[in-house]
Write a structure and sequence with these properties.
The protein is built from no helices and 15 strands. By secondary structure, it is an all-beta fold.
């Protein structure tokens, strides 16, 4: 089953063990570049035959800039994550234009944190406290459009709201590569652990607490994966 048209990026992170090829399975087929020691691991994946392995030192993925990354309305960035270490700040997703123009989503050791800067002004910001364990898979979703409100930004972990904010702001046009597992412009460290089923969508996939995915996206519509599409 092909991914729906609202899926702007879909990384199943399957492949040969040790491979540095990360394939975008969305209809856009975007180029993904693995930096550092980023690689596919065929052990301990959440779904499918593999997951992305990142060691926290120079490991991250980049995807070229696109007009699609200037979200005109609601959006969702969701993924499966398994931390090897919970210490320090670990970038999960970011895009920049300059030192004063960037958006970032990261784990700071005890909170999920989202910040959006333009003109060196913090326009959108929130921190959502959470308690996690290493070597455990979690589903995480960053959503704009929570509660069916286009101005509400939220983090949900394993289908449950962890916190967010409500504010009106037009999403900027950042011009750098999208980064997964890093945020160099925000001064954060790299992610240390495993990622699977990393998806970017231009809709709010969920607007209230939900049952987290039980299988890979864009695979078996009608076999328990309905929420992955709508």
């Amino acid at each position: 089953m092909a991914c729906d048209t609202n899926t702007l990026l879909m990384l199943h992170m399957d492949g040969t063990n040790g491979s540095t090829t990360f394939t975008d399975s969305s209809t856009y087929g975007r180029t993904v570049t693995a930096l550092g020691n980023s690689q596919i691991s065929t052990t301990s994946s959440k779904f499918g035959s593999g997951c992305g392995l990142f060691d926290g030192t120079g490991d991250y993925l980049t995807i070229p800039d696109s007009a699609d990354w200037q979200f005109a309305g609601n959006f969702t960035i969701d993924f499966q994550v398994r931390f090897a270490s919970l210490a320090g700040t670990q970038g999960l997703w970011a895009q920049t234009t300059s030192g004063s123009e960037y958006v970032e989503f990261y784990w700071d050791g005890s909170n999920w944190v989202f910040k959006l800067f333009t003109g060196n002004v913090l326009r959108v910001s929130f921190s959502a406290a959470d308690t996690l364990s290493t070597s455990t898979w979690y589903h995480v979703a960053l959503i704009r459009g929570w509660g069916s409100n286009a101005n509400t930004w939220e983090v949900a972990r394993d289908g449950n709201s962890k916190g967010g904010t409500t504010t009106t702001f037009t999403y900027p046009d950042y011009t750098s590569n999208v980064e997964i597992g890093n945020n160099t412009q925000g001064g954060l460290g790299q992610f240390n652990g495993r990622l699977d089923e990393f998806r970017i969508s231009n809709i709010a996939r969920w607007t209230a607490n939900f049952t987290p995915p039980t299988s890979a996206y864009c695979a078996n519509l009608g076999t328990g994966n309905f929420l992955a599409f709508f």
